[in-house]
Amino acid sequence: MKDFTLTFYEELLKSIMNADYKIITFNESLNCKDSRYLILRHDIDYLPENALRMALIEHKLGIKATYFFRIIPSVFNKDIILKIFELGHEIGYHYEDMNLVYDIDYDKHLELAFKSFCKNLEKIRKLVPIYTICMHGSPRSNYDNKELWTRYDYKKLDIIGEPYLDIDFSDVFYITDTGRKWNNFLFSIRDKVYSSYDIKIKNSQHLIQLFKERKLPNRIMLNTHPHRWFDIGFYWYKELLIQNIKNVIKFILIKISYK
Question: Are 35 and 47 a contacting pair, CB within 8 Å?
């Protein structure tokens, strides 16, 4: 079976359930007292249609997840956001406002970015309730979107959490499919955390096996990007090719940044 298919994704979810993890949203995790849980998170960078396909699979299995949507027109699809919300999933804002504005003066840049954030947050809140946010990595940008919070406080906007700032990843094992590989940070510029865990994951089949053998920590955040997951066909092969090209570019950018 080829990796990063929706069939594989459903099998992955079943392996998590069979391993007795409580699958919860990011919002729920902020007050979760359970000793064994998995936070199911999706970053919607492109192709919101794929997010809906994942949401339907989860709903069929009785699972809720958090879907962080970018504000750009190709992703901010009101009908799809509402459908996912109506299935019982959490919607959050996948913010990138440091990259949506520009001013040569950094202080002014922060001010403009905060105004942009507030405007976009209100736009999404007119559609569905928003209580959590998550930065978009924006690998081609010089700015880290989390820089916004060096001056401003998102909790004053009735936001209760941001994964990269409100989760203790020394206690929660972070798993992400960035670069169409699992936790391969050679191809990740910002979607990575400082973790006390060093668990290698070869592919989705290996990840499923780790769940089946109960070899993973009790607390996990699993992050996927739905635009990487297709049924086998033209779009699956297209994504494979495009992501391999992107990985080469990201690898070069990382090498340059560390020189």
Answer: no
pLDDT, tens only, 32-75: 999 999 999 999 999 999 999 999 999 999 999 999 999 999 99
39: β partners:
24, 221
User: How is residue 161 annotated by DSSP?
Assistant: B
Q: What is the token pair recorded at 3?
A: 């990796």
Structure tokens at 231: 């049924």
The length of the chain in residues reads 259
Strand partners of residue 82: none
- Scan for tokens 């936790």, then name that residue: 183
Dig out the tokens for 219 from the structure: 């607390």
In this prediction the pTM is 0.90
Measured CA angle at 42 (ends 39, 48), to 5 deg: 155
The DSSP bridge partners found for residue 24 are 39
Place of tokens 């930065």: 135
* Terminal alpha carbon distance of the chain: 40
For the stretch 96-137, pLDDT in tens is: 999 999 999 999 999 999 999 999 999 999 999 999 999 998
Confidence of residue 238 (pLDDT cuts 50, 70, 90): confident
Helices in the chain by DSSP H: which ranges?
Answer: 6-18, 26-29, 48-61, 78-86, 106-125, 163-166, 204-212, 234-257
Q: Which of 103, 99, 49 is nearest to 71 (CA)?
A: 99
Phi and psi dihedrals of 92, rounded to 5? -130, 170
